[in-house]
Amino acid sequence: MARLNTATKSTVKTYRASTAAGWATATLFVTVACGAMTSTGCAGMATNSNAKATPLEAVQITPSDMTFSNVKTGERSTQTATLVNTGTEAVTIEQLAMSSAEFSESGLTAPLSLGPGQSKKFQVSYTGSSSTGASGTLTAMTSTGGRSHVKLKGSGGATPTLSLSTTALSFGNVLVDGSGTKAVTLKNSGQTNIQVSQIGVTGGGFSISGLAAPVTISAGQSVALEAKFAPVAAGAMSGAISITSDAQNPTATVALNGTGVAAAYTMALSPTSVSFGNVNAGSSATQTVQLSNTAPRGPGSAHALLCCAGPGRALLKRSCTRRAPDRACRRCARSRSLPSPAAR
Asked: Has residue 303 got a pLDDT over 90?
């Protein structure tokens, strides 16, 4: 039997038992011996003199749950997470492991050493692969076996539809060198963003403004653009606005039509002749002459511009629309506009 050596007292007790009970006696004795301050026959076991304190290290990832909502198939959504050493000893992060291929991390290179209280931010991304979504776990592992976990969840979203306030715009009759404008509203009626990659317009005299691609239309939001028809020649014209996006309807179209109308006016003077009779030297005489614009009645009727070219003389300039006089009309600073009967 082994002998117990203690700093205070040695006690040996003899147990008498049969041979059949010998295994129980040995087991009891070994338990007592290994629990003593020192022992013989228990080599390699930890004691008060050779035991080491476990380092007080701990790592934590915040937030502990990350959810990526309404991510379309093929789209990526990214959030920021923080890795913190909450212990009192330095810790080395050996690896960040993902349990699902739909999730990935960036911005952190292992191995990474963090002192007590130090932290490191990094990014976690989810790439949509189906409308049903995915789930997974992110695990940070230390060199001593410590671990921290983050639950990850990503949900898919149905591909949104791009709605238009109208699919056709008619500008009616517009005077040549004049213009008409109309608005078109684009609405994202889905739960995920729509990326508009291109906006184009075809047709002579048609143009758009107020919205330029590329542009993102957030879920449930609307944007507007302005369509303009400015004919430079008389006649019927047609065109279209085409909007290309990643919506369920990848190409949305607005048909355009309008007619350019040449300005028509007839100037009339009444009376056609004026006689002042005999006028004494140093005196004056006055007669009234009426100048009329006999253009047809209707929207956009022409105006005739009478520009003062000097005392006693007048120069007739080209016609302008009531709504948008052209630059030549604006340059005639001393002008008088004679509206057609429709505008009186």
From this structure: no
